[in-house]
């Protein structure tokens, strides 16, 4: 006769009393040596039942008013299973602040929470439900548990109740970064910067960071290389009743991978943003304004008293309503009889009644939209700067052009404004990371042959389209988790390959670009095989199609430090110059043979090497 399956309790109190809860464990891994530091103990209801998931269990417990009882039962179940399995390392147990208060209230022994296990092996995770209204009164609970030997972790940091305020006051031993910030961090620059900010604060506070929700090798290697100490997630193992004792082969290989992660770059990087945030008030000219009832004679008197004033604002109360340009006004008044005819008439007669108004908090980049507007009067008139709509001062068109230019030059050092690829500062930073980690790589300098004649013939607009096409081809040739692509400027790009298949990738990029570039030519030029134009000396010349050339320098592991980033850039430029003379468009030189290449460097064969360092 078949055995009868045990009845699953639907009442949460009965389920707890009948000990129908079961524990599963997920490993927490040290990135340094791949050791399992401990396990997070998680609770499950009866398999296949409506109460199997933690969400269902706690929802039922909350409705029944016995959440604390469920938390205590969950901890007891996890401790018993952990000890029975003979697991080593720490046991991470989830508790809400309310449950901790109740379980340690009225003089109860804190050690009662840890029946069967040394409290020094326990890490208490304050869960996202841990709203702590009165942290001062909660701190004695923390002190009692710490005195027993337990450590504290702040769970799901960055969301819900896991706030910086709690971090500062609780002084947790461990902070677990919420999976939202971890998943896809290899490709999300904002998540990367958020985690880096957490990392800086953890270093200051002495807390150890654990990255939750790691599911891919790319995310793991980025976290490893940015210095996060440990983590957990499906990539290391799913929660399991058997508590895995060692990492799987895939996870071990990822932790030991020799290649250096390519950090995601923000389009608006820190340095560019700092320059872009220069407010309009920094270019403000403090100047008096005239009321709208003022006459033209009063405008003339003001300009005569202030010879450097380029314009004057007209206001009604504190609100600017018009702007009078000095030169236009004075030129008009120089005409015969104009002062006699118009001197006592309202100044609005010769004013621009639709001046450009800019709030002083506006960034330079926001103001740059004016440069593309149809109304260019502001270049001569300048513009009015306001403070919450009230007149504050004036600005000149010249100062705006200068500020926008400075911002974009600075921004281009971080991200190229045409292709949005990393600029020279991120390029240099990645080279230094490769060198400091003794990583082997191929530095490939990319240039376009015959690009200038094409640009001269078809114009900058079409030339920009060719550059964007080249950037796309090169991006397609790269493994974004291993290969760094940057835009030095103009038609110069730099790839720092760590992919083992780098040679095939480079050849494919050349072939794809050379074939695709033909579509940018007019049908007649395609039939002719190129275009006619003038060389640098003004001589009539026939130019073939734009093609791609790639010069590569191989830097063996541990050999880069003998060169430095400037020497590597010079060698890459030398390789590129040679590649431009090769039919294949691809040349590779060994960075270890730099001594043999010194004559070529000394004779100026790398006259354009400095472009890689601009």
TrEMBL record:
InterPro entries per UniProt: CBS_dom_sf, Cyclic-di-GMP_PDE-like, EAL_dom, EAL_sf, GGDEF_dom, Nucleotide_cyclase, Rev_trsase/Diguanyl_cyclase
One Pfam family this sequence matches: GGDEF
Positions of the EAL domain: 5-253
Superkingdom in the source lineage: Bacteria
Ranges of residues in domain GGDEF: 439-600
GO molecular function terms listed in the Swiss-Prot or TrEMBL record: cyclic-guanylate-specific phosphodiesterase activity
Name of this protein: Phosphodiesterase
């Amino acid at each position: 006769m078949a055995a009868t399956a045990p009845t699953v309790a639907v009442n949460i109190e009965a389920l707890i009393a009948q000990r129908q809860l079961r524990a599963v464990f997920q490993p927490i891994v040290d990135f340094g040596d791949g050791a399992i530091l401990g396990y997070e103990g998680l609770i499950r209801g009866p398999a296949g039942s409506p109460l199997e998931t933690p969400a269902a269990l706690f929802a039922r417990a909350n409705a029944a008013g016995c959440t604390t009882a469920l938390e205590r039962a969950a901890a007891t179940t996890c401790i018993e299973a952990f000890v029975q399995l003979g697991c080593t390392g720490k046991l991470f147990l989830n508790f809400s602040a309310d449950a901790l208060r109740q379980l340690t209230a009225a003089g109860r022994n804190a050690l009662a929470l840890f029946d069967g296990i040394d409290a020094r092996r326990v890490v208490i995770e304050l869960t996202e439900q841990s709203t702590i209204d009165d942290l001062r009164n909660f701190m004695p609970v923390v002190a009692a548990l710490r005195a027993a030997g337990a450590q504290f972790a702040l769970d799901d940091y960055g969301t819900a109740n896991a706030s910086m305020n709690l971090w500062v006051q609780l002084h947790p031993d461990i902070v677990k970064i919420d999976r939202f910030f971890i998943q896809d961090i290899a490709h999300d620059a904002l998540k990367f910067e958020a985690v880096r900010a957490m990392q800086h604060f953890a270093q200051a506070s002495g807390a150890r960071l654990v990255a939750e929700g790691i599911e891919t090798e790319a995310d793991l290697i980025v976290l490893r290389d940015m210095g996060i100490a440990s983590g957990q997630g499906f990539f290391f193992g799913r929660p399991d009743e058997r508590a895995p004792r060692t990492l799987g082969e895939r996870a071990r290989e990822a932790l030991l991978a020799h290649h250096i992660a390519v950090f995601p770059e923000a389009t608006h990087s820190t340095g560019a943003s700092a320059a872009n945030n220069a407010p309009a008030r920094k270019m403000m000219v403090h100047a008096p304004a005239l009321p709208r009832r003022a006459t033209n004679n009063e405008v003339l008197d003001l300009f005569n008293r202030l010879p450097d004033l380029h314009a004057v604002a007209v206001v009604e109360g504190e609100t600017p309503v018009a702007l009078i340009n000095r030169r236009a006004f004075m030129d008009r008044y120089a005409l015969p009889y104009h002062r006699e005819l118009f001197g006592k008439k309202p100044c609005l007669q010769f004013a621009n009644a639709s001046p450009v108004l800019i709030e002083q908090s506006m960034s330079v980049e926001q103001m740059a939209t004016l440069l593309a507007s149809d109304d260019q009067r502001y270049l001569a008139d300048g513009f009015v700067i306001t403070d919450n709509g009230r007149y504050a001062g004036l600005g000149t068109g010249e100062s705006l052009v200068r500020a926008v230019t400075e911002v974009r030059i600075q921004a281009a050092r971080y991200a190229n404004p045409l292709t949005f690829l990393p600029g020279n500062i991120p390029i240099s930073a990645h080279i230094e990371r490769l060198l400091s980690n003794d990583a082997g790589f191929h530095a490939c300098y990319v240039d376009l042959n015959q690009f200038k004649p094409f640009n001269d013939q078809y114009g900058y607009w079409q030339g920009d389209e060719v550059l964007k096409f080249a950037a796309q081809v090169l991006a397609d040739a790269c493994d974004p988790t291993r290969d760094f692509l940057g835009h030095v400027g103009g038609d110069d790009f730099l790839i720092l390959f760590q992919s083992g298949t780098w040679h095939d990738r480079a050849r494919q990029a050349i072939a794809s670009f050379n074939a695709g570039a033909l579509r940018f030519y007019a049908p007649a030029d395609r039939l002719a095989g190129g275009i006619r134009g003038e060389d640098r000396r003004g001589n009539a010349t026939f130019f073939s199609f734009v093609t791609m050339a790639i010069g590569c320098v191989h830097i063996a592991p541990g050999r880069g430090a003998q060169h430095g980033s400037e020497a590597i850039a010079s060698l890459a430029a030398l390789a590129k110059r040679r590649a431009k003379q090769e039919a294949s468009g691809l040349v590779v030189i060994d960075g270890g043979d730099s001594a043999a290449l010194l004559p070529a460097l000394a004779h100026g064969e790398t006259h354009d090497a400095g472009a890689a360092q601009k």
